[in-house]
Amino acid sequence: MLTALLLLVIVALSVVFLLYTGSLRRAQEQQSQNEERLRQMADNIQEVFWMLDAKTRKTLYVNQAYETITHRTCQSLRENPSSYEEVIHPEDRPHILAKLEEATRSGHFDEQFRITWPTGEVRWVWVRGFPVRDSDGVICRLVGTAQDVTRQKQAEDEVTRNLALAQSAWADAEALRKATLSLIQDIRMDFVLDTLLQSLTELVPCECARIWLLEGETHLFVAREKLRHELSKKRPAYPLAINAADLPFLERILQSQKSVLLPDTKEEPDWRLFKNHIHLRSWLCVPLIASQRTLGLLSLGQTEPDGFTQEDLRRAQLLAIPAAAAIQNARLYECASIYGSELERREDDLKEAQQALQEAKEARIASEAKFEAIFRASPIPFSITTIDEGRFLDVNAAFERAYGYSRAELVGHTLEELRIWEDAADSELFRTQIQRTGSIRNIVARLRTKAGEIRLTAYSADRIHFNGLPCVLAVSEGIPQQAQNPAH
After folding, report:
1. Contact at 8 Å (CB) between 196 and 176?
2. What is the pLDDT along the chain (488 residues), one digit of tens a residue?
3. How far apart are CA 236 and CA 389, in angstroms?
4. What's the CA angle centered on 288, arms 285 and 293, to 5 degrees?
5. How many CB atoms lie under 10 A from the CB of residue 377?
């Protein structure tokens, strides 16, 4: 009798063991299938999906996009899990590694920085990271994505440059417009010269500014000048007059009617013969030309070399156009026609800036499309609700599966109407916290499915703008039964 009972116990234990091993094998197969699906999804997105150990900051996993974005192999990262640090641009590396160290404690990483390819080419990436916590709430891993945003960054930089050019163009145009209007307000020569000198020094800051008028073929005299206080002590008897025939470089300007910029006057052999100019180290000169005839010169000087830029020269050239017309009492419309061509070029710059803005907008739309694709395909339940009412605007398929509702049953209804939160006070508390701080992370919440089942979930949310409305993007991932009952 005892032997038979013992045999029955052995048989029962064998059956239990077989059932257990079969269940375990099916669970392992299911887990393997889930991991394979996740790996396939990760390997088929353009962004890098990465995972780091929070303590060592060594790489645990990256997808194939790592090779596309960094031009380095995944194998190299497996052989040296910290080699991703070498990818970061040397100038950005200290800051980014410090931020990564901080992220192992805060769980938040959101940075745009430069990386370098093995060829030396520099690219821009946008890297975001999120925490994975153990059962004690300690961050054990960081996971996230890295996206190549080089084109977007270049578009933003181009927009910034074009806007700066446009602003500079409008500022120059406004200054030149005012100068032109001032020059034609009075036809008296004294008024014209005084106004021209003031406009010249406002457009191009300098230590010495002079207006030369031409008499005959080569004789020049200073009709107006403005010197810095220290230089005014060396001011010669007025008016200063010279013969350009004695200075070959000055005679060439009169004959060619072309502007000159000397970064360093010591490189001009005949400069020492230029009376009362020997102390100047950089100098620019623009001829005043009207109806193809040279009327005089505008000259500016600095006591240090490289005191002027090509932009300074361009401004002086633009001013010389209406100045020459005013000095000769030329027709205002002729001057406006010459000056109008410059405004048309500036309008082209503005159009290019607008085009760059449009391209940046298109890049943003493409980025939103990527978010939509990830939102739909994610195996984790996502929902988007309005922040004021908690009204559903969208959910993904994983949310439908997890809570038993179809998307049509959710969209347009509020959390309160559907009684998804077991405790409405918790819902209001979390919504208030999101409004105040902008996000919550891994808060344990009790949510009700359509069937009435209460699910214990890890709830995280961020405040976003969706379709022009302030909303909440929430992740409500169910907590496994083992985590809910750690003692078992």
Report:
1. no
2. 545 555 555 656 565 555 656 555 665 565 555 445 545 554 556 899 999 998 999 999 999 999 999 999 999 999 999 999 999 999 999 999 999 999 989 989 999 999 999 999 999 999 999 999 988 889 999 999 999 999 988 888 888 888 777 676 676 667 677 767 667 677 778 888 888 888 888 889 999 999 999 888 899 989 899 988 655 555 555 578 889 888 888 999 999 999 999 999 999 888 988 888 889 999 999 999 988 889 999 999 999 999 999 999 998 998 888 888 888 863 444 344 545 565 676 677 667 767 776 776 676 677 677 778 888 888 889 999 998 888 999 999 999 998 999 999 999 999 889 998 988 888 888 888 888 888 888 888 899 999 999 989 988 999 998 888 899 999 988 887 655 555 44
3. 81
4. 130
5. 13
Structure tokens at 268: 């001009």
DSSP 168-231: HHHHHHHHHHHHHHHHTS---HHHHHHHHHHHHHHHS--SEEEEEEEETTTEEEEEEEEE-HHH
Q: What's the DSSP call for residue 46?
A: S
The domains found in the chain, sorted by start residue, are 38-148 (3.30.450.20), 188-328 (3.30.450.40), 380-484 (3.30.450.20)
Tokens of 343: 């405004």
Q: Is 349 exposed, middle or buried (0-12, 13-18, 19+ CB in 10 A)?
A: middle
Query: For residues 322 and 185, what is the distance between their CA atoms, to the nearest angstrom?
Result: 12
Q: Which is nearest to 213 in space by CA: 287, 118, 273?
A: 287
For residue 239, give the DSSP letter: S
Q: Three-state DSSP class for 459?
A: strand
Cβ contacts of 13 within 8 Å, gap of 6 or more = none
> What would the two tokens of residue 84 be?
């991703």
Q: Which of 127, 122, 169, 165 is nearest to 356 (CA)?
A: 165
